[in-house]
């Protein structure tokens, strides 16, 4: 099983998550607030990195962390993680998209009320002994219009809560259907209409190039009054524009939990405007939410270490937990078939086809195909795993195709990996005996029955008397013991044949020359697969 893995945690997460990682046998190191070179040093021998929003996980981090398997984000937003760089380095990025949704929604509601009733301002004055009752005349949310920009998980929870207190709901989200909005009692409208109609506008999009500064001077002018709440991401709202709009009365107020740069600088213009209520990124900071996200990330890290699917992987194929036991043996089988095919083809690989027949064709096979690609690319000595294999194929212009058919001729399930180029191709078919024992059952059209592991030799020869004996003698003379062999021929007339050997020992280089010196033998290939021959 897995060896002790090191998990580096650079933003505070709940003890329940740390405990779960330790219970699973992993070494957990916490190094909060490390940045720059100190972060690069700390991550150098880590197998997993756990962060919240406080750590910038850049390309340099992946460069420094050669043993990194996964970055776990104990929360939702991953704008602080360079996912492209992670994929290039074959590192999984996973988040915890459910655990803090209610906390974020409740904080949003709290912020809307806080700004509408000036609670923080009145509170601060009363604490200094000032009874400023006459200075505050608030706004009710009841019967006002709530505009929601981004009707995803958090946006929907906010919708439910504020619908419940009698607000009218409009929403702008170009990626969801009208039906979903209607089920929440919200009307889907265009962006401008959402701004114009909202008395309270709340933002719940991720920060992406598309949403950066989504709301700036022009958009705030369209609102022309009312309140803006941002508990999503700082960069979505232009801070200078918002501060100016509240200052000059274009808006009545705002409530902001998130900032373009965090921790926020004392010079941030929003801190100077009295009608802007601020909190230091507290949306997810409840006990329940923190326990949820920390344990979710711990489980996903453990799964990654065990080679199991990572439920919320953002850059890797993930598989339903209940389906994984059925798929797992095919992951290894496809990788092996890919490895064998790549090692047997002489020419360049410019296309890979993975086809599925029988029961396996009913399953979600994205991860199986990625594993087949990993198998194909590994003998080429590319730094590859199932996370970056599809990307590597794309970058190198290798065409990847998949096909599925529920019919299987001779086997319950068959996985075939075909590698080739415009001039030639070679297929390797694998199946599972008794549902779990991997077998190679066809190589380049020859029907074989080979156990794919350890040292193997695949010889092509003319089907003449004494050839097999000759190969056995040469191997024996070189102290290579044959654990098993299978000979296949296309026809019974002395034509071409293919023989697959499982060997107990590595093959010395000169063996190949000796074998090929015999004109009955046309090709010899050595394969090295995982495990050793029995
Ligand atoms: N303040 C805090 O502590 C917390 C902040 N968050 C943040 O809240 C935000 C929302 O989180 P979730 O609801 O879980 O995400 P989600 O992915 O479930 O929903 C985001 C929604 O935004 C929509 N969207 C994307 N681009 C858009 C655009 N240009 N215009 C309008 N809509 C667009 C998407 O279609 C999606 O429906 C994220 O930025 C997340 O990081 C989440 C939890 C806590
Ligand atoms: O989950 C999110 O997106 C959040 O913004 C929460 O951030 P945090 O984990 O509190 O740094």
From TrEMBL:
GO terms for biological process: L-serine biosynthetic process. It catalyses: (2R)-3-phosphoglycerate + NAD(+) = 3-phosphooxypyruvate + NADH + H(+). GO terms for molecular function: NAD binding; phosphoglycerate dehydrogenase activity. Keywords: Amino-acid biosynthesis, NAD, Oxidoreductase, Serine biosynthesis. Its EC number is 1.1.1.95. Pathway: Amino-acid biosynthesis; L-serine biosynthesis; L-serine from 3-phospho-D-glycerate: step 1/3. Residues 326-443 form the D-3-phosphoglycerate dehydrogenase ASB domain. It comes from the Archaea. Belongs to the D-isomer specific 2-hydroxyacid dehydrogenase family. This is D-3-phosphoglycerate dehydrogenase. It comes from Halogeometricum borinquense (strain ATCC 700274 / DSM 11551 / JCM 10706 / KCTC 4070 / PR3). The lineage of its organism: Archaea, Methanobacteriati, Methanobacteriota, Stenosarchaea group, Halobacteria.
